[in-house]
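Now for today's protein.

===
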Amino acid sequence: MGQDNLIGTTVAGYRLLKHAGEGGTALVYKAEHPERGPVAIKILRGKQAEDPVAVQRFLKEGDFGVKAAHPNIIKTFDFGEENGLYYIALEWADGEPLANFMAAAGKVAPTLVARIINQLGEALTAAHRAGIIHRDLKPANIMYDPATQTARLLDFGIARDTEDAPEARLTRAGFFVGTLQYVAPEALSGELVSEQADVYSLATIAYHLLTGKLPFSGRNPRELFQQLLSQDPIPLEEAAENTRFSPALTAAVMKGLERDIGKRWKTVDDFAMAVSEAASGGGGSSEPKGGLFSRLLGRKK
């Protein structure tokens, strides 16, 4: 069955209602289930479904989603294959990708940043305890609901199991996985990484939320690649023009961006706690009173 005419059909008990999005390997539909109500269904693209490695990676994504259970992780109901279609059924989540919110909002107040980072830290801690390294943490892979200030993690498409032997990897050695703007420097060699790679990516998100900018100024992938390997990130306050942060908040974020993993926060929990403590202890910015984020924070404490 062609994937362009799946609307109105039923896959594994899920009736596909409309297209909801797409990625490089899968199409996403909004669907309805008689017991679960509205859900999101990812369907592996046709050519990908003919590639055994792509199929294995897709099914592994579903398995990781089931194992990494936490309120701040989009719930994976089930996954599998039916009539040649490989699918993953996910909870339908309110909100929008965090990337969309960030693009519209610009700089975000430290108190709200701490709230978002704390939620993501808890989600990643649950994944790490389940033996899963996300490896592609970025705003596009986070659902955010401004009305409730709730952030939820999704997309374990390139995650890895900490117990995997090097020969079991699904990515060739020497090729890094992730998104260059958010990937940890040690991942650029293509070697297997630890949870500290997720710490780095989470710190990059915190930096981006606080400043509206990324830690490196590379104008193209080649420049950015070299900067990640050899340069220190732009200091937080230098990136955030006309904004001042407490020394504690600056130190917490910049420690998360240490190129040397021996100097970086050991766990996402350590990093999230440091950001939360710094923000609650006066890590504020020079945001004008009555601004967007003052109203957002006043909506929910």
In short: The chain has a mean pLDDT of 84. Residues 96-299 form a domain with the Transferase(Phosphotransferase); domain 1 fold (CATH 1.10.510.10). Residues 143 and 188 are 26 Å apart (CA to CA). DSSP finds nine helices and eleven strands in the chain.
